[in-house]
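Co-fold these.
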Amino acid sequence: MAVILVVEDDVFIREIAEMMIQDWGHHTLSASDVDEALSLLRSPQHIDALFTDIYLKTAVLGGCELAHQAIKLRPKLRVLYTTGNSVTDKMKTLFVEGTHFLSKPYTKHQLQDSFGDLLAT
Amino acid sequence: MSYIALGEKAVSDIAASDIVETVPSALIILDRNLNITSANRAFYQTFRTSADETEGCHIYDLGNRQWDIPALRTLLESVIPHRASVEGFEVEHNFPTIGRRTMLVNARKIFRPGDHDGFILLAIEDVSEERAARKESKRNWQLTQSIVDTIRDPLVVLEQDMTIVTASKAFLTIFGITEADARGRCFSELGQHQWDVPALRHLMEKVLPENKPIEGFEIEDNFPGLGRRVFNLNARKIFQPGNHTHRMLLVFEDITDRKQRERDAQMLTNEISHRIKNNLQVIVGLIAYEARSTAQPCVQGYKAMEARIGAIAQLYDLISQSSRGRTIAVDAYLRQIAQTMSGSLLGNTPGIKIEVKAEALDIDPDRAVAFGLLVNELATNAIKHAFPDGTGRVVLSVEQVNDQIELTVADDGVGIKNKDSTKIPEKRGSDYVAMFVRQLGGTIAPSGSEETGTIVRIRLPLLLVPPWGAGRVAA
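Predicted complex below.
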Protein backbone atom coordinates (compact mmCIF):
# COMPACT_ATOMS: atom_id res chain seq x y z
CA MET A 1 0.00 0.00 0.00
CA ALA A 2 1.20 3.48 -0.87
CA VAL A 3 1.28 6.79 0.95
CA ILE A 4 -0.33 9.57 -1.10
CA LEU A 5 -0.03 13.29 -0.37
CA VAL A 6 -3.26 14.98 -1.51
CA VAL A 7 -2.93 18.75 -2.08
CA GLU A 8 -6.26 20.46 -2.72
CA ASP A 9 -7.55 23.84 -1.49
CA ASP A 10 -11.22 22.79 -1.56
CA VAL A 11 -11.79 20.91 1.69
CA PHE A 12 -14.73 18.80 0.48
CA ILE A 13 -13.01 17.76 -2.74
CA ARG A 14 -9.84 16.95 -0.83
CA GLU A 15 -11.62 14.82 1.75
CA ILE A 16 -13.64 12.94 -0.86
CA ALA A 17 -10.43 12.26 -2.80
CA GLU A 18 -8.78 10.97 0.37
CA MET A 19 -11.82 8.79 1.06
CA MET A 20 -11.63 7.31 -2.46
CA ILE A 21 -7.91 6.63 -2.10
CA GLN A 22 -8.28 5.12 1.36
CA ASP A 23 -11.02 2.80 0.04
CA TRP A 24 -8.33 1.12 -2.08
CA GLY A 25 -6.20 0.59 1.02
CA HIS A 26 -3.73 3.44 0.57
CA HIS A 27 -2.72 5.83 3.29
CA THR A 28 -3.20 9.58 2.72
CA LEU A 29 -1.67 12.81 3.92
CA SER A 30 -3.27 16.13 3.07
CA ALA A 31 -2.39 19.79 2.55
CA SER A 32 -4.38 22.78 1.34
CA ASP A 33 -1.54 24.86 -0.12
CA VAL A 34 2.06 24.76 -1.30
CA ASP A 35 3.62 25.63 2.05
CA GLU A 36 1.73 22.93 3.96
CA ALA A 37 2.66 20.40 1.31
CA LEU A 38 6.32 21.35 1.36
CA SER A 39 6.41 20.99 5.17
CA LEU A 40 5.28 17.41 4.79
CA LEU A 41 7.66 16.76 1.92
CA ARG A 42 10.58 18.10 4.00
CA SER A 43 9.60 15.89 6.95
CA PRO A 44 10.89 12.32 7.34
CA GLN A 45 7.39 11.02 6.51
CA HIS A 46 7.41 8.34 3.80
CA ILE A 47 5.48 9.53 0.71
CA ASP A 48 5.11 7.54 -2.54
CA ALA A 49 3.05 9.94 -4.63
CA LEU A 50 1.83 13.51 -4.81
CA PHE A 51 -1.72 14.17 -6.04
CA THR A 52 -2.02 17.92 -6.44
CA ASP A 53 -4.49 20.43 -7.78
CA ILE A 54 -2.73 22.88 -10.09
CA TYR A 55 -4.80 25.93 -9.12
CA LEU A 56 -4.16 26.40 -5.41
CA LYS A 57 -5.88 29.40 -3.80
CA THR A 58 -4.02 32.48 -5.01
CA ALA A 59 -1.28 30.49 -6.72
CA VAL A 60 -2.61 29.98 -10.27
CA LEU A 61 0.02 27.40 -11.12
CA GLY A 62 0.83 26.51 -7.50
CA GLY A 63 0.58 22.79 -8.14
CA CYS A 64 3.19 23.01 -10.92
CA GLU A 65 5.59 24.93 -8.69
CA LEU A 66 4.97 22.52 -5.84
CA ALA A 67 5.71 19.49 -8.02
CA HIS A 68 9.04 20.96 -9.17
CA GLN A 69 10.12 21.64 -5.57
CA ALA A 70 8.81 18.25 -4.46
CA ILE A 71 10.88 16.43 -7.08
CA LYS A 72 13.98 18.35 -5.96
CA LEU A 73 13.33 17.18 -2.41
CA ARG A 74 12.31 13.64 -3.39
CA PRO A 75 13.49 12.74 -6.90
CA LYS A 76 11.63 9.39 -6.92
CA LEU A 77 8.27 10.91 -6.00
CA ARG A 78 5.44 10.18 -8.48
CA VAL A 79 3.18 13.08 -9.36
CA LEU A 80 -0.45 13.21 -10.52
CA TYR A 81 -1.82 16.67 -11.39
CA THR A 82 -5.47 17.66 -11.53
CA THR A 83 -7.30 20.86 -12.42
CA GLY A 84 -10.71 22.12 -13.47
CA ASN A 85 -9.06 24.30 -16.09
CA SER A 86 -8.28 23.01 -19.51
CA VAL A 87 -4.66 22.09 -19.82
CA THR A 88 -2.87 24.31 -22.30
CA ASP A 89 0.36 23.46 -24.07
CA LYS A 90 2.02 26.19 -22.01
CA MET A 91 0.83 24.51 -18.84
CA LYS A 92 2.12 21.14 -20.04
CA THR A 93 5.61 22.58 -20.41
CA LEU A 94 5.52 23.26 -16.66
CA PHE A 95 4.80 19.64 -15.81
CA VAL A 96 7.58 17.59 -14.31
CA GLU A 97 8.75 14.98 -16.80
CA GLY A 98 7.06 11.60 -16.54
CA THR A 99 4.14 12.84 -14.44
CA HIS A 100 0.44 12.14 -15.00
CA PHE A 101 -2.67 14.30 -15.33
CA LEU A 102 -6.36 13.79 -14.46
CA SER A 103 -8.95 16.44 -15.31
CA LYS A 104 -11.79 17.48 -13.01
CA PRO A 105 -14.42 16.29 -12.49
CA TYR A 106 -12.90 12.86 -12.06
CA THR A 107 -14.83 9.80 -10.96
CA LYS A 108 -13.67 7.27 -8.44
CA HIS A 109 -12.84 4.84 -11.22
CA GLN A 110 -10.91 7.42 -13.21
CA LEU A 111 -8.90 8.31 -10.11
CA GLN A 112 -8.30 4.62 -9.43
CA ASP A 113 -7.11 4.05 -13.00
CA SER A 114 -4.81 7.08 -12.81
CA PHE A 115 -3.26 5.88 -9.56
CA GLY A 116 -2.94 2.40 -10.99
CA ASP A 117 -0.91 3.82 -13.89
CA LEU A 118 1.03 6.19 -11.62
CA LEU A 119 2.07 3.61 -9.04
CA ALA A 120 2.91 1.04 -11.72
CA THR A 121 5.60 3.31 -13.20
CA MET B 1 11.91 58.69 -104.46
CA SER B 2 15.12 60.09 -102.97
CA TYR B 3 16.09 59.10 -99.48
CA ILE B 4 19.16 60.04 -97.52
CA ALA B 5 21.80 60.76 -100.17
CA LEU B 6 24.05 57.89 -101.09
CA GLY B 7 26.04 59.36 -104.09
CA GLU B 8 28.83 57.17 -105.39
CA LYS B 9 28.82 54.57 -102.67
CA ALA B 10 30.90 51.70 -101.59
CA VAL B 11 29.30 48.42 -100.57
CA SER B 12 29.64 49.32 -96.89
CA ASP B 13 27.78 52.60 -97.55
CA ILE B 14 24.95 50.74 -99.24
CA ALA B 15 24.63 48.61 -96.15
CA ALA B 16 24.52 51.80 -94.08
CA SER B 17 21.67 53.14 -96.19
CA ASP B 18 19.75 49.92 -95.54
CA ILE B 19 20.19 50.52 -91.84
CA VAL B 20 19.02 54.12 -92.20
CA GLU B 21 15.88 52.99 -93.96
CA THR B 22 15.23 50.30 -91.38
CA VAL B 23 15.68 52.15 -88.09
CA PRO B 24 12.40 53.20 -86.42
CA SER B 25 13.64 56.73 -85.67
CA ALA B 26 12.82 59.46 -88.16
CA LEU B 27 16.02 60.85 -89.67
CA ILE B 28 16.53 64.06 -91.69
CA ILE B 29 19.62 65.85 -92.95
CA LEU B 30 19.72 69.62 -93.06
CA ASP B 31 22.21 71.81 -94.85
CA ARG B 32 23.75 74.86 -93.24
CA ASN B 33 20.70 76.93 -94.22
CA LEU B 34 18.44 74.39 -92.50
CA ASN B 35 17.04 73.17 -95.79
CA ILE B 36 16.19 69.47 -95.81
CA THR B 37 18.44 67.54 -98.14
CA SER B 38 17.03 64.11 -97.39
CA ALA B 39 14.95 62.04 -94.97
CA ASN B 40 14.33 58.37 -94.29
CA ARG B 41 11.23 56.23 -94.62
CA ALA B 42 10.42 56.47 -90.88
CA PHE B 43 10.29 60.28 -91.14
CA TYR B 44 7.77 60.21 -93.96
CA GLN B 45 5.65 57.61 -92.20
CA THR B 46 5.72 59.34 -88.83
CA PHE B 47 4.86 62.78 -90.14
CA ARG B 48 2.65 61.61 -93.01
CA THR B 49 4.57 63.41 -95.70
CA SER B 50 6.57 62.51 -98.82
CA ALA B 51 9.99 63.09 -100.29
CA ASP B 52 8.56 65.53 -102.86
CA GLU B 53 7.05 67.70 -100.14
CA THR B 54 10.14 67.47 -97.99
CA GLU B 55 13.40 67.59 -99.90
CA GLY B 56 14.69 71.11 -100.56
CA CYS B 57 12.14 72.56 -98.19
CA HIS B 58 13.28 74.73 -95.28
CA ILE B 59 12.72 72.90 -92.03
CA TYR B 60 10.47 75.65 -90.66
CA ASP B 61 8.37 75.75 -93.84
CA LEU B 62 7.77 72.01 -93.90
CA GLY B 63 4.13 70.94 -93.62
CA ASN B 64 2.49 74.36 -93.30
CA ARG B 65 5.25 75.48 -90.90
CA GLN B 66 4.41 72.84 -88.36
CA TRP B 67 8.13 72.48 -87.61
CA ASP B 68 8.51 76.13 -86.81
CA ILE B 69 8.69 75.36 -83.15
CA PRO B 70 10.41 77.69 -80.66
CA ALA B 71 12.12 74.77 -78.95
CA LEU B 72 13.46 73.46 -82.28
CA ARG B 73 14.61 76.93 -83.25
CA THR B 74 16.54 77.10 -80.01
CA LEU B 75 18.19 73.77 -80.79
CA LEU B 76 19.08 74.52 -84.38
CA GLU B 77 20.04 78.19 -84.05
CA SER B 78 21.51 78.47 -80.56
CA VAL B 79 22.72 75.05 -79.46
CA ILE B 80 23.93 73.24 -82.59
CA PRO B 81 26.21 76.06 -83.84
CA HIS B 82 28.25 75.71 -80.69
CA ARG B 83 28.25 71.97 -80.20
CA ALA B 84 29.08 68.98 -82.32
CA SER B 85 26.12 67.00 -81.08
CA VAL B 86 23.06 67.24 -78.85
CA GLU B 87 21.22 64.28 -77.39
CA GLY B 88 17.84 63.90 -75.78
CA PHE B 89 16.45 67.31 -76.69
CA GLU B 90 12.74 67.01 -75.95
CA VAL B 91 10.21 68.85 -78.09
CA GLU B 92 6.52 68.79 -77.25
CA HIS B 93 4.33 70.24 -79.99
CA ASN B 94 0.88 70.05 -81.49
CA PHE B 95 1.56 68.84 -85.05
CA PRO B 96 -1.36 69.58 -87.38
CA THR B 97 -1.00 66.23 -89.16
CA ILE B 98 -0.46 63.90 -86.22
CA GLY B 99 -1.66 65.86 -83.20
CA ARG B 100 0.12 66.57 -79.94
CA ARG B 101 3.38 64.69 -79.74
CA THR B 102 6.51 64.57 -77.67
CA MET B 103 9.62 64.17 -79.82
CA LEU B 104 13.06 63.29 -78.60
CA VAL B 105 15.60 64.91 -80.92
CA ASN B 106 19.26 63.92 -81.24
CA ALA B 107 21.36 66.17 -83.47
CA ARG B 108 24.85 65.70 -84.88
CA LYS B 109 26.99 67.76 -87.22
CA ILE B 110 28.35 65.88 -90.20
CA PHE B 111 31.33 67.10 -92.18
CA ARG B 112 32.62 65.75 -95.45
CA PRO B 113 36.13 66.26 -96.75
CA GLY B 114 36.39 69.77 -98.26
CA ASP B 115 33.00 70.79 -97.00
CA HIS B 116 33.41 73.24 -94.11
CA ASP B 117 29.76 74.10 -93.74
CA GLY B 118 28.70 70.55 -93.07
CA PHE B 119 25.26 69.08 -92.51
CA ILE B 120 23.06 68.45 -89.51
CA LEU B 121 21.65 64.97 -88.94
CA LEU B 122 18.50 65.00 -86.86
CA ALA B 123 17.19 61.79 -85.39
CA ILE B 124 13.63 62.26 -84.18
CA GLU B 125 11.95 59.71 -81.98
CA ASP B 126 8.28 59.86 -81.09
CA VAL B 127 8.21 59.24 -77.35
CA SER B 128 4.66 60.48 -76.84
CA GLU B 129 3.27 57.16 -75.64
CA GLU B 130 6.18 56.54 -73.32
CA ARG B 131 5.87 60.02 -71.81
CA ALA B 132 2.09 59.62 -71.46
CA ALA B 133 2.59 56.27 -69.76
CA ARG B 134 5.15 57.86 -67.47
CA LYS B 135 2.74 60.65 -66.58
CA GLU B 136 -0.05 58.14 -66.02
CA SER B 137 2.23 56.07 -63.84
CA LYS B 138 3.17 59.14 -61.83
CA ARG B 139 -0.48 60.11 -61.44
CA ASN B 140 -1.29 56.54 -60.35
CA TRP B 141 1.57 56.58 -57.90
CA GLN B 142 0.40 59.88 -56.43
CA LEU B 143 -3.14 58.56 -56.19
CA THR B 144 -1.93 55.35 -54.57
CA GLN B 145 0.21 57.28 -52.12
CA SER B 146 -2.79 59.50 -51.26
CA ILE B 147 -4.90 56.42 -50.58
CA VAL B 148 -2.09 54.81 -48.62
CA ASP B 149 -1.73 57.93 -46.48
CA THR B 150 -5.43 57.96 -45.61
CA ILE B 151 -5.40 54.34 -44.37
CA ARG B 152 -5.18 54.28 -40.60
CA ASP B 153 -3.27 51.02 -40.44
CA PRO B 154 0.46 51.42 -41.02
CA LEU B 155 1.67 49.87 -44.23
CA VAL B 156 4.82 49.63 -46.28
CA VAL B 157 5.66 48.57 -49.80
CA LEU B 158 8.77 46.40 -50.06
CA GLU B 159 11.08 45.44 -52.87
CA GLN B 160 11.97 41.80 -53.39
CA ASP B 161 15.11 42.30 -51.27
CA MET B 162 12.84 43.49 -48.38
CA THR B 163 13.95 47.10 -48.61
CA ILE B 164 11.26 49.72 -48.17
CA VAL B 165 10.01 51.47 -51.31
CA THR B 166 7.44 53.59 -49.54
CA ALA B 167 5.74 53.80 -46.18
CA SER B 168 2.40 55.29 -45.23
CA LYS B 169 2.19 58.34 -42.98
CA ALA B 170 0.58 56.14 -40.32
CA PHE B 171 3.59 53.83 -40.43
CA LEU B 172 6.05 56.70 -40.14
CA THR B 173 4.11 58.31 -37.28
CA ILE B 174 3.54 55.16 -35.25
CA PHE B 175 7.08 53.89 -35.57
CA GLY B 176 8.63 57.36 -35.18
CA ILE B 177 10.79 57.38 -38.30
CA THR B 178 11.09 59.78 -41.20
CA GLU B 179 10.31 58.91 -44.78
CA ALA B 180 13.98 59.41 -45.64
CA ASP B 181 15.01 56.97 -42.90
CA ALA B 182 12.50 54.39 -44.05
CA ARG B 183 13.09 54.47 -47.80
CA GLY B 184 15.66 51.96 -49.01
CA ARG B 185 16.07 50.50 -45.54
CA CYS B 186 15.77 46.78 -44.94
CA PHE B 187 12.46 46.00 -43.21
CA SER B 188 14.06 43.70 -40.64
CA GLU B 189 16.38 46.50 -39.47
CA LEU B 190 13.53 48.77 -38.41
CA GLY B 191 13.08 49.77 -34.78
CA GLN B 192 14.91 47.42 -32.47
CA HIS B 193 14.78 44.56 -34.96
CA GLN B 194 11.34 43.54 -33.67
CA TRP B 195 10.40 42.40 -37.14
CA ASP B 196 13.49 40.27 -37.56
CA VAL B 197 11.64 37.08 -36.69
CA PRO B 198 12.74 33.90 -38.50
CA ALA B 199 9.17 32.60 -38.95
CA LEU B 200 8.04 35.94 -40.43
CA ARG B 201 11.11 36.18 -42.64
CA HIS B 202 10.44 32.68 -43.91
CA LEU B 203 6.86 33.61 -44.82
CA MET B 204 7.86 36.92 -46.39
CA GLU B 205 10.39 35.21 -48.61
CA LYS B 206 7.53 33.22 -50.18
CA VAL B 207 5.18 36.14 -50.86
CA LEU B 208 6.72 37.26 -54.15
CA PRO B 209 8.24 34.11 -55.68
CA GLU B 210 5.30 31.87 -54.79
CA ASN B 211 2.56 34.53 -54.70
CA LYS B 212 1.72 33.27 -51.23
CA PRO B 213 0.10 35.95 -49.06
CA ILE B 214 0.66 36.22 -45.32
CA GLU B 215 -2.56 36.31 -43.33
CA GLY B 216 -2.63 37.27 -39.69
CA PHE B 217 0.94 36.78 -38.49
CA GLU B 218 0.99 38.08 -34.92
CA ILE B 219 3.96 39.80 -33.33
CA GLU B 220 3.98 40.99 -29.73
CA ASP B 221 6.88 43.09 -28.50
CA ASN B 222 7.92 46.29 -26.79
CA PHE B 223 8.09 49.10 -29.32
CA PRO B 224 9.95 52.35 -28.54
CA GLY B 225 7.44 55.07 -27.73
CA LEU B 226 4.51 52.65 -28.00
CA GLY B 227 5.10 50.21 -25.19
CA ARG B 228 3.99 46.61 -25.48
CA ARG B 229 1.93 46.13 -28.59
CA VAL B 230 0.50 43.28 -30.62
CA PHE B 231 0.49 43.66 -34.39
CA ASN B 232 -1.27 41.50 -36.91
CA LEU B 233 0.69 41.38 -40.18
CA ASN B 234 -0.80 40.75 -43.60
CA ALA B 235 1.25 40.77 -46.79
CA ARG B 236 0.56 40.19 -50.46
CA LYS B 237 2.19 40.59 -53.82
CA ILE B 238 1.32 43.72 -55.79
CA PHE B 239 2.08 44.50 -59.41
CA GLN B 240 0.98 46.82 -62.19
CA PRO B 241 -0.14 45.47 -65.55
CA GLY B 242 2.74 45.84 -67.99
CA ASN B 243 5.25 46.31 -65.21
CA HIS B 244 7.40 43.29 -64.50
CA THR B 245 8.54 44.58 -61.13
CA HIS B 246 6.67 42.88 -58.31
CA ARG B 247 6.51 44.32 -54.86
CA MET B 248 5.06 43.38 -51.51
CA LEU B 249 2.40 45.28 -49.61
CA LEU B 250 2.76 44.74 -45.88
CA VAL B 251 -0.01 45.97 -43.59
CA PHE B 252 0.30 46.25 -39.81
CA GLU B 253 -2.90 46.04 -37.80
CA ASP B 254 -2.57 47.07 -34.18
CA ILE B 255 -4.66 44.47 -32.36
CA THR B 256 -3.35 45.21 -28.86
CA ASP B 257 -6.72 46.28 -27.45
CA ARG B 258 -8.59 43.46 -29.12
CA LYS B 259 -6.00 40.99 -27.89
CA GLN B 260 -6.33 42.30 -24.35
CA ARG B 261 -10.11 41.97 -24.51
CA GLU B 262 -9.71 38.42 -25.75
CA ARG B 263 -7.29 37.63 -22.95
CA ASP B 264 -9.63 39.12 -20.36
CA ALA B 265 -12.50 37.08 -21.78
CA GLN B 266 -10.30 33.98 -21.80
CA MET B 267 -9.31 34.55 -18.20
CA LEU B 268 -12.94 35.02 -17.20
CA THR B 269 -13.99 31.92 -19.14
CA ASN B 270 -11.22 29.91 -17.50
CA GLU B 271 -12.18 31.17 -14.07
CA ILE B 272 -15.85 30.32 -14.60
CA SER B 273 -14.95 26.95 -16.10
CA HIS B 274 -12.65 26.24 -13.16
CA ARG B 275 -15.39 27.05 -10.63
CA ILE B 276 -18.03 25.08 -12.50
CA LYS B 277 -15.81 22.06 -12.78
CA ASN B 278 -14.86 22.25 -9.15
CA ASN B 279 -18.57 22.31 -8.34
CA LEU B 280 -19.12 19.34 -10.63
CA GLN B 281 -16.29 17.63 -8.81
CA VAL B 282 -18.15 18.23 -5.55
CA ILE B 283 -21.27 16.62 -7.07
CA VAL B 284 -19.25 13.67 -8.35
CA GLY B 285 -17.75 13.43 -4.86
CA LEU B 286 -21.22 13.33 -3.33
CA ILE B 287 -22.22 10.57 -5.73
CA ALA B 288 -19.08 8.63 -4.91
CA TYR B 289 -19.80 9.02 -1.21
CA GLU B 290 -23.39 7.80 -1.62
CA ALA B 291 -22.29 4.94 -3.84
CA ARG B 292 -20.08 3.57 -1.04
CA SER B 293 -23.11 2.61 1.02
CA THR B 294 -25.44 1.69 -1.81
CA ALA B 295 -26.47 -1.79 -2.79
CA GLN B 296 -24.64 -3.10 -5.89
CA PRO B 297 -27.69 -2.99 -8.24
CA CYS B 298 -27.87 0.78 -7.77
CA VAL B 299 -24.17 1.42 -8.40
CA GLN B 300 -24.69 1.36 -12.17
CA GLY B 301 -27.16 4.24 -11.82
CA TYR B 302 -24.58 6.28 -9.95
CA LYS B 303 -22.02 5.54 -12.64
CA ALA B 304 -24.47 6.71 -15.29
CA MET B 305 -24.94 9.90 -13.31
CA GLU B 306 -21.17 10.42 -13.23
CA ALA B 307 -21.04 9.99 -17.00
CA ARG B 308 -23.76 12.63 -17.49
CA ILE B 309 -21.82 15.05 -15.34
CA GLY B 310 -18.69 14.20 -17.31
CA ALA B 311 -20.48 15.06 -20.58
CA ILE B 312 -21.37 18.50 -19.21
CA ALA B 313 -17.83 19.06 -17.92
CA GLN B 314 -16.35 18.27 -21.33
CA LEU B 315 -18.38 21.10 -22.79
CA TYR B 316 -16.73 23.64 -20.48
CA ASP B 317 -13.35 22.27 -21.46
CA LEU B 318 -14.12 22.90 -25.10
CA ILE B 319 -15.49 26.39 -24.47
CA SER B 320 -12.53 27.47 -22.38
CA GLN B 321 -10.02 26.28 -24.95
CA SER B 322 -10.84 29.15 -27.25
CA SER B 323 -11.01 32.82 -26.34
CA ARG B 324 -13.28 33.57 -29.29
CA GLY B 325 -15.20 30.37 -29.36
CA ARG B 326 -18.91 30.75 -29.84
CA THR B 327 -19.76 27.40 -31.37
CA ILE B 328 -18.88 23.91 -30.31
CA ALA B 329 -17.14 21.45 -32.61
CA VAL B 330 -19.39 18.40 -32.56
CA ASP B 331 -16.66 15.99 -33.63
CA ALA B 332 -14.33 17.06 -30.81
CA TYR B 333 -17.20 17.07 -28.34
CA LEU B 334 -18.17 13.50 -29.29
CA ARG B 335 -14.60 12.29 -28.89
CA GLN B 336 -14.34 13.82 -25.42
CA ILE B 337 -17.68 12.33 -24.35
CA ALA B 338 -16.54 8.94 -25.64
CA GLN B 339 -13.28 9.27 -23.74
CA THR B 340 -15.10 10.17 -20.53
CA MET B 341 -17.56 7.30 -20.92
CA SER B 342 -14.76 4.86 -21.57
CA GLY B 343 -13.21 5.95 -18.28
CA SER B 344 -16.36 5.95 -16.19
CA LEU B 345 -18.59 3.21 -17.58
CA LEU B 346 -16.23 0.76 -19.18
CA GLY B 347 -13.87 0.28 -16.27
CA ASN B 348 -15.06 -3.24 -15.63
CA THR B 349 -15.87 -4.10 -19.26
CA PRO B 350 -12.72 -3.45 -21.29
CA GLY B 351 -14.15 -5.61 -24.08
CA ILE B 352 -16.53 -2.83 -25.10
CA LYS B 353 -15.07 -0.16 -27.37
CA ILE B 354 -16.53 3.24 -28.22
CA GLU B 355 -15.65 4.70 -31.61
CA VAL B 356 -16.42 8.11 -33.09
CA LYS B 357 -17.02 8.88 -36.76
CA ALA B 358 -17.87 12.53 -37.13
CA GLU B 359 -17.93 15.23 -39.77
CA ALA B 360 -16.68 18.69 -38.83
CA LEU B 361 -19.98 20.22 -37.73
CA ASP B 362 -20.77 22.94 -35.22
CA ILE B 363 -23.53 23.43 -32.70
CA ASP B 364 -24.29 26.44 -30.58
CA PRO B 365 -23.49 26.32 -26.85
CA ASP B 366 -27.13 26.76 -25.84
CA ARG B 367 -27.96 23.32 -27.18
CA ALA B 368 -24.60 21.69 -26.63
CA VAL B 369 -25.42 20.43 -23.13
CA ALA B 370 -28.61 18.73 -24.32
CA PHE B 371 -26.70 17.27 -27.28
CA GLY B 372 -23.94 15.92 -25.04
CA LEU B 373 -26.42 14.40 -22.61
CA LEU B 374 -28.37 12.84 -25.49
CA VAL B 375 -25.25 11.16 -26.83
CA ASN B 376 -24.31 10.07 -23.34
CA GLU B 377 -27.75 8.57 -22.74
CA LEU B 378 -27.87 6.63 -26.02
CA ALA B 379 -24.35 5.30 -25.60
CA THR B 380 -25.03 4.37 -21.97
CA ASN B 381 -28.14 2.46 -23.05
CA ALA B 382 -26.10 0.56 -25.62
CA ILE B 383 -23.38 -0.29 -23.13
CA LYS B 384 -25.90 -1.38 -20.51
CA HIS B 385 -28.10 -3.57 -22.69
CA ALA B 386 -26.36 -4.61 -25.90
CA PHE B 387 -23.42 -6.65 -24.65
CA PRO B 388 -24.37 -9.28 -22.07
CA ASP B 389 -21.08 -11.06 -22.76
CA GLY B 390 -19.10 -7.85 -22.15
CA THR B 391 -17.66 -7.47 -25.66
CA GLY B 392 -18.72 -5.32 -28.57
CA ARG B 393 -18.50 -1.98 -30.28
CA VAL B 394 -20.48 1.25 -30.02
CA VAL B 395 -20.09 3.78 -32.82
CA LEU B 396 -21.06 7.43 -32.30
CA SER B 397 -21.36 9.32 -35.55
CA VAL B 398 -22.63 12.65 -36.82
CA GLU B 399 -23.05 13.80 -40.39
CA GLN B 400 -24.92 16.52 -42.21
CA VAL B 401 -27.95 15.28 -44.12
CA ASN B 402 -29.43 18.12 -46.14
CA ASP B 403 -30.24 20.83 -43.61
CA GLN B 404 -30.10 18.52 -40.62
CA ILE B 405 -27.54 16.89 -38.40
CA GLU B 406 -27.94 13.14 -38.13
CA LEU B 407 -26.64 11.64 -34.93
CA THR B 408 -26.29 7.88 -35.02
CA VAL B 409 -25.50 5.61 -32.12
CA ALA B 410 -24.97 2.07 -33.35
CA ASP B 411 -23.89 -1.08 -31.60
CA ASP B 412 -23.12 -4.60 -32.76
CA GLY B 413 -24.71 -6.19 -29.74
CA VAL B 414 -27.63 -8.53 -29.26
CA GLY B 415 -30.22 -6.10 -30.62
CA ILE B 416 -33.78 -5.84 -29.44
CA LYS B 417 -36.80 -7.95 -30.33
CA ASN B 418 -39.06 -5.03 -31.23
CA LYS B 419 -37.30 -3.12 -34.05
CA ASP B 420 -39.52 -0.06 -33.68
CA SER B 421 -36.63 2.27 -33.00
CA THR B 422 -38.87 5.21 -32.09
CA LYS B 423 -39.68 3.33 -28.93
CA ILE B 424 -36.13 2.31 -28.20
CA PRO B 425 -35.42 4.87 -25.49
CA GLU B 426 -38.57 3.96 -23.59
CA LYS B 427 -37.83 0.27 -23.98
CA ARG B 428 -34.41 0.95 -22.60
CA GLY B 429 -35.97 2.61 -19.63
CA SER B 430 -34.74 6.09 -20.36
CA ASP B 431 -37.09 9.02 -20.76
CA TYR B 432 -34.12 11.29 -21.03
CA VAL B 433 -33.56 10.57 -24.72
CA ALA B 434 -37.03 11.69 -25.71
CA MET B 435 -36.70 14.79 -23.53
CA PHE B 436 -33.34 15.80 -24.99
CA VAL B 437 -34.53 15.18 -28.56
CA ARG B 438 -37.54 17.43 -27.91
CA GLN B 439 -35.29 20.06 -26.37
CA LEU B 440 -33.11 20.01 -29.47
CA GLY B 441 -36.12 20.27 -31.80
CA GLY B 442 -35.20 16.93 -33.38
CA THR B 443 -36.85 13.66 -34.26
CA ILE B 444 -35.95 10.01 -33.84
CA ALA B 445 -35.55 8.76 -37.40
CA PRO B 446 -36.72 5.27 -38.37
CA SER B 447 -33.89 2.79 -38.81
CA GLY B 448 -33.79 -0.11 -41.18
CA SER B 449 -33.79 -3.57 -39.70
CA GLU B 450 -30.36 -4.89 -38.89
CA GLU B 451 -29.20 -8.45 -38.65
CA THR B 452 -27.50 -7.76 -35.36
CA GLY B 453 -27.18 -4.86 -33.04
CA THR B 454 -29.17 -1.67 -32.75
CA ILE B 455 -29.00 1.62 -34.58
CA VAL B 456 -30.66 4.75 -33.28
CA ARG B 457 -30.77 7.74 -35.62
CA ILE B 458 -31.66 11.20 -34.41
CA ARG B 459 -32.27 14.06 -36.83
CA LEU B 460 -31.62 17.55 -35.45
CA PRO B 461 -31.92 20.97 -37.05
CA LEU B 462 -28.60 22.17 -38.39
CA LEU B 463 -27.74 24.50 -35.56
CA LEU B 464 -26.91 27.96 -36.71
CA VAL B 465 -23.87 29.90 -35.69
CA PRO B 466 -25.09 32.63 -33.36
CA PRO B 467 -24.71 36.17 -34.72
CA TRP B 468 -22.11 37.33 -32.20
CA GLY B 469 -19.24 35.26 -33.53
CA ALA B 470 -18.04 32.39 -35.59
CA GLY B 471 -15.04 31.04 -33.72
CA ARG B 472 -15.10 27.26 -33.63
CA VAL B 473 -14.19 25.56 -30.40
CA ALA B 474 -12.28 22.39 -31.06
CA ALA B 475 -10.34 20.03 -28.87
